[in-house]
Write a structure and sequence with these properties.
The complex is a heterodimer of chains A (about 300) and B (about 525).
Chain A (H helix, E strand, L loop, with lengths): L1 H32 L7 H19 L2 H25 L4 H20 L13 E2 L9 H6 E2 L1 H19 L1 H11 L1 H6 L4 H27 L11 H11 L4 H23 L6 H19 L3 H7 L13
Antiparallel strand pairs in A: 1-2
Helix pairs in contact in A: 1-6, 1-9, 1-10, 1-11, 2-3, 2-4, 2-9, 2-10, 3-4, 3-9, 6-7, 10-11, 11-12
Chain B lengths: L14 E12 L2 E12 L3 E5 L6 H8 L7 E6 L2 E3 L4 H7 L1 E4 L11 H8 L6 H14 L15 H13 L5 E5 L7 H16 L3 E5 L3 H7 L2 E6 L2 E6 L6 H9 L18 E10 L9 E9 L3 E5 L6 H9 L10 E3 L2 E2 L5 H6 L2 E4 L14 H9 L7 E2 L2 E2 L1 H14 L16 H13 L5 E5 L7 H16 L3 E5 L3 H7 L2 E6 L2 E2 L3 E2 L5 H11 L5 H4 L2 H6 L1
Parallel strand pairs in B: 3-8, 3-9, 6-7, 7-8, 13-20, 13-21, 16-19, 19-20
Antiparallel strand pairs in B: 1-2, 1-4, 4-5, 9-10, 11-12, 11-14, 14-15, 17-18, 21-22, 21-23
The chains are: A mainly alpha (about 300), B alpha/beta (about 525).
Amino acid sequence: MSDISMIEAVLLTIITASTPLLLAAIGELVVERSGVLNLGVEGMMIVGAVIGFAATQATGSPYVGIVAAMLAGIAMSVLFGFLTLNLMTNQVATGLALTILGLGLSGMIGEAFIGQPGISLKPIAIPGLSEIPFVGSLLFNQDILVYTSYGLVIAVYLVLFKSRTGLIIRAVGDNHSSAHALGYSVISVRYLAVMFGGACAGLAGAYLSLIYTPQWVEGMTAGRGWIALALVVFASWRPARALVGAYLFGAVSILQFHAQAAGIGLPTQLMSALPYLATIVVLIVISRNKNLAKVNTPACLGKPFVPDR
Amino acid sequence: MENTQRSAHSAGVEDLIEARGITKKFGDILANDNVDLVIKQGEIHALLGENGAGKSTLVKILYGALEPGAGEILWKGKPVSISNPAAARKLGVGMVFQHFSLFEALSVVENIALALPKGEKIEALSRRITEVSQKYGLPLDPAALVADLPVGIRQRIEIVRCLLQNPSLIIMDEPTSVLTPQEADQLFITLQRLASEGCAILYISHRLEEVKRICHNATIMRHGQVVGSCDPTEETPASLARMMVGGEVHEICASEHKGSPGDVMLKLRNLSIPSDGAFGIELKNVNLNLRGGEIVAVAGVAGNGQSELFDAVSGETLIKDGYGVEICGVPVGKRKINDRRLLGSAFVPEERLGHGAVPGFVLSDNILLTRYKSDPDLIRRGMLNQSLAAEMEKRITVSYDVRMSHDNPEARSLSGGNLQKFVVGRELDRVPKLLVINQPTWGVDAGAAALIRQAIIDLARNGSAVLVISQDLDEIYELADRIAVISRGELSEAEPAAAMTPEKIGLLMAGMGETRSKVTASNAGDVHAH
């Protein structure tokens, strides 16, 4: 019995470790499908984390914090959009600058909140389903952001591949000149995608400061934004693969802690590197079909669109 | 095949679209200067002009992709403003682009759905595509991925996409440049049928024979202005060309090459290369002997292994069997491009911007890039000899009539024809013993094309060997001593040009020469005659 509750506890922490990666990756996936490479995920995420925490402290409601974090992420992404889409700045440089800005800005805003105990978001048990032994509490007794992350994977899949909106997003990412020639507004589509990415990164940040560790610590994203970016590429821009990648990374990073605690005779550095290695290997194996990779890679990724009028 | 409704278009038909005084400026350049154009319902109207004459600008304005600086457009007699392509489509204007307007990563039906108003289910649209494409003899598989399809089929998608919008005017930019003669014939039947149903077609082409054959009226542009209009049926291709260029077009003189054939300069021996995964074509057992003093042309529809063949000969693809490619008697299969250049060969790839020349580099730097190894003077004590490169740039641009706004510009600032003249000139300036050239005059205007073709012929007459890969049959007949046809990675026997009728080439393009039907291939002409 105690074994089962032990496994359950481990699985719960895996979900907790994976959710922020999944949220950020699914947003960036849509951004990149529209042909924009936003390397500022880390920056948008940490600003989301600090704003979410601050808004929760101010109002006492974590839900207000979640909305505030999304808005903060969107604000950052609009800045990115203005620079890259209107002023045609280099997307890579602008994304890097956004991350640096976000890290600095969050440190400044968050100074007053260091060491304050946060208000944690309570799980929502789904009546009936959550009483199923083992599976119930794992899947149906989670907080709203975990449910949201699953919902987003399904929604993004349906929108991208089954709806006209998604068709337009993919078209803009594949060949912006043709999309423009057909009369689609490349800039508006990309703005909306970039803002969606910002909102998702904000959510991922809120998850960190409201659920993962309900407090504000400077630099608490700890590179998760970069992992999310890498997951998108290795998932060859497919939502379901991003889910697999995020959970795999989360799982291995939790399991290696337990393995270290259990005293497996491997150097700790190697153990800490395991999540990265495992994720890369698995995602390379999933996406080894070069044909599919070619078709899924947005051909206009990172290229600025300059209409010729 | 002659059009019988021609007389019906001379009078009494309502004007469909009229452009009045269209003017468009790009910077200091007047791309369109007070242009007038009238297209009647149900007529096939040719728009002729050299590269840079302003045809594309005018067409983009009619399609709403550009806004005119001045002038007005009347649709069925009423002034309209066509502010974007969606507005043009709503009026009933459809456009078949020359290239770059399909989404490769999307399927046929998805590509078409993007151009239609929303609301239709993908399944219903697929059925409609199949229906319309069969009705007009342009079969399409709605579920196929564009990236997997050859260029001829891609054009079909564009046409069907256009037809599904029930247009009253279809604008076609160089539609036959990627088709086999048979496919082109099929297209003409489709166009004539559309015209007889009342749809007007604005037809842009460099091929004056075609214009003469199918068009009812022609408007000719030069330097942004309309310089004349005519009934193409009453003109000859030569007189049409004169109007376009505003003077005599250089007549190509291909004096029969005399004397005994020279040494073998290029030998392909059982050259086989597996396709490089993705969307490549496998080369199967290609054999060819090319001697000094002769021009051999490889005909074929785009995407049948031409670029793979070019890459194997130029050294962009190295092959395992060193003896598969021999240049001047040296097996070079495993040697790189510069080693092959050192043996006296020169290569002109199909894509001039980005492959033949680096867009952001000035011309002299582009000379350095391909010639630093073969012209040792270009490197002095380990440093680039910029001044010699600049001299060469001057020499080449003068002798190949490369027109540019100022000396030594960036490659991307040249128009297509001028850049092609530069790229060809850069290689011919070395007087190579072997020249391999892929699509020498693709998208190049008549004047520049004549210059390039003459230069190729002169090179061969002076004893060099030339391999021309081209989709343009007129060009092939103008240049080639012998013709081979490539189809799905297999190359037919190179036979004297006189023995290769367009029908025979067409059949070989369609796969008659492939190994499965090798027995009948040699009698392809007879088979056709029965």
